[in-house]
């Protein structure tokens, strides 16, 4: 069947080509996302990958599998994109009437965007050294972005996707020794993101309980209840704004400034990067009114608390099927 589709696609049959690559489209999109850290950049690069595959199908000799050939194209297109992309610049603080505390530090990866869980369904991969959710988590994807590009590529191809060292060497026009050396350095570079206290399983009773407590606390602006949910070393970030806060004390000051400014929210649940997430809608009046979407929160959990909260802009809403605003209640 595959040979027939290849023959037809080489003859210019676009439907045959689409049928040929459809089983790999979604996993290639996830691969591009891990490589680039940006959902939009991944979408754009995937289209470039598919066009390159379509135009270069005559060069597929069958010595490797079609999947391996596609990953070779995708990886090299992503490496090119990382070299040439004009990443989103850092953004100034723009929350009206809220003066943020001095940040713990300023983050580097301001182009980070979340990946909708709805697009992860039926994406199958070995994830040889990582659990499925860990391999797409915000912490892992962020750590990947600060690796040198070839180390990033080697780590994802070897430890997440399970390709052999000789296959990766072929994809990168490198040697097995070079691949193994890059993998060793890359593993050291991301080791810090592996938690000794794993997250509760997705949609489990444990996760649901933490999430419900967060929603109650945030929607009611109950600062004490919110802070009680955070770990001592909780981490707050908000790309493309570079502000990063670490620790419960400064988190308390951060959220106090938001609530003291009279900002009240309704949260709409979704999921991103294998983690619970919420569209945050700012109430126009204390009792309701039209509610305007202002950002997307993604929570990183421990067994019973929240260890990280990442806030993204409302420009990501369309990828999650979230409306720009909610009607009056």
TrEMBL record:
Q: Please give the organism.
A: Kribbella caucasensis
Show which residues constitute the signal peptide.
none
Q: NCBIfam families this protein is in? A: PRK08241.1, sigma70-ECF, SigX5
Q: Which domain of life is it from?
A: Bacteria
Name recorded for this polypeptide: RNA polymerase sigma-70 factor (ECF subfamily)
Q: Which residues form the RNA polymerase sigma factor 70 region 4 type domain?
A: 139-188
Is-annotated flag, keyword Transcription regulation? yes
| Family from the record | Belongs to the sigma-70 factor family. ECF subfamily.
Q: Which key words are in the record?
A: Sigma factor, Transcription, Transcription regulation
Q: Which intervals hold domain RNA polymerase sigma-70 region?
A: 20-88
Occurrences of domain SnoaL-like (ranges)? 211-307
Its BP terms in the Gene Ontology are: DNA-templated transcription initiation
Task: Please give the subunit comment from the record.
Answer: Interacts transiently with the RNA polymerase catalytic core formed by RpoA, RpoB, RpoC and RpoZ (2 alpha, 1 beta, 1 beta' and 1 omega subunit) to form the RNA polymerase holoenzyme that can initiate transcription.
Q: Does the record bear Transcription in its keywords?
A: yes
Extract the GO molecular function terms from the UniProt entry: DNA binding; sigma factor activity
